Fold this sequence. Notes:
Blueprint: H1 17-40, H2 47-54, H3 58-64, H4 68-73, H5 78-86, H6 94-112, H7 114-126, H8 128-153, H9 160-182, H10 189-202, H11 204-208
Helix pairs in contact: 1-2, 2-3, 5-8, 6-10, 7-8, 7-9, 8-9, 9-10
InterPro entries: Homeodomain-like_sf, HTH-type_TetR-like_transc_reg, HTH_TetR, MftR_C
Protein name: TetR family transcriptional regulator
Keywords: DNA-binding, Transcription, Transcription regulation
Amino acid sequence: MAAPRTPSVTPDTRPGLRERKKIRTRREIRRATFRLVSARGWDATTVEQIAEEAEVSPSTVLRYFPVKEDIVLTEEYDPVLEGALRQRPRDEPLLESVRAVVTGAMRRSLDEEPDEVLLRTRLMLEVPAVRARMVESAGVTSRMLCRVVAERTGRDAGELEVRIFATGLLAAVLETTLYWAERGQRDDLVELVDRMLRTFEGGLARIDG
């Protein structure tokens, strides 16, 4: 999912040492990119400039992020998010589990890295290549969510209903984030996501009244 960062890492979901080193490198590249884009704009920021700012080689940047758009979109914590969802009570409604994990991650992101969240969502709105890549890369998170849904419901992860639920939920998160950006990021994003989940849960019955 593009806007939120990651839930807090717990002992059960903490990545290994090698993975943590990769995460740190990715995070430095991402932070360098945000600094440059904030100062120069998206189109004027090159991979070479990002590498210099992050003190790595251009090939390292491209190894972690095959295209520039991935730098502001790719989340390194899908396994942690998956673990956080699995740690929710088994008898808790699935959407309640999603609400707790996603809104918690968003609150932390807005508290800890507000400038990055604001810039990321602005780029999603204003740069077509970023938005297109975001939709394309959502497939990884969708497959993760399918696994969690399948585990919680006893269904197969490849079933149509499971895939529709997972992809529909991710699309709803994306649309909510774009709605927030279109309105100048004035609203409370966490409240909007909670509102989206209530609408998703109620479906057309909620819209029809």
